[in-house]
Amino acid sequence: MTAPVVEAPALELRDVWKRFGRTEIIRGASLAVGAGERVAIIGPNGAGKSTLFNLVSGRLAPSAGEIRLQGARIDGLAPHLVHRRGLARSFQVSNLFARLSVFENLRCAVLWSLGVRYCFWRLLSGLHEANARAAELMTLLRLERRRDVLALNLTYAEQRALEIGLAIAGGAPVVLLDEPTAGMSRGETRRFVQLIREVTQGRTLLVVEHDMGVVFDLADRIAVLVHGEVIAFDRPEAVRADARVREAYLGAALAGEGAR
User: What residues contact residue 28 under an 8 Å CB cut-off, 6+ apart?
Assistant: First the structure.
């Protein structure tokens, strides 16, 4: 009898540590995220969430442990090589080409993902595949009416949507979003969460987010990071009921949400 084939997690951290000198920022973090799963990482300020994202995306190398993308190790690879392997990231701080239009921003991202190098005699308007993909992304992001608007003239929510478009332009199966709804109003947040669901459909999503309403609405599972350790990794209802999580973080966070 043939043994069943067990698929590797889309993204996996195996006992990952990160030290800066004698200071331990990430302490033995382990996670296994399945293909198509949406996972939120939460925790108090200083818990190590940004460091963890930087480790996964290649901006930092772990001091120990392994990071695997679709079964292959990526720890220690440069960010552009991690991206080539199929992992894309958006940042909390705006990372757009401010003086390019919406369409031009998306086309730049598509061209890079297609491996098109700069060539001064090649007209960008003639790159039909890139143009078509950029137009498709604009429609997906609901920015088609803003096609020729410079990125610097977009609303904040539109800029955040465009940033996600840049992240997914290359078709990466794993996407990291760093506080995607930070600074948005309640109404903008609700609309943006729906947009995230749509544009990441079929992809694996890892998101750092402080808004507990967003976390419990969007995530299939939640990882709670406290002092660099993953103290819980489970479905939202189980995390909400976990006494350790409530004591360490969630009780105060939910109280803060209720006071807004």
Answer: 15, 16, 17, 65, 229
Does residue 15 come out as left (phi exceeding 0), alpha (psi in the -120 to 50 range) or beta? left
Instruction: Count helices and strands (H / E) in the chain.
Output: 10, 10
CA distance 259 to 52: 29
Cα 98-102-103 angle, rounded to 5 deg: 130
Amino acid at 110: V
Q: Does the pLDDT at position 41 exceed 80?
A: yes
Task: Tell me the mean pLDDT in the region 220-240.
Answer: 96
Highest mean predicted confidence (pLDDT) among 5-9, 123-127, 155-159: 155-159
How far is Cα 221 from Cα 133, in angstroms, rounded to an integer? 31
pTM: 0.85
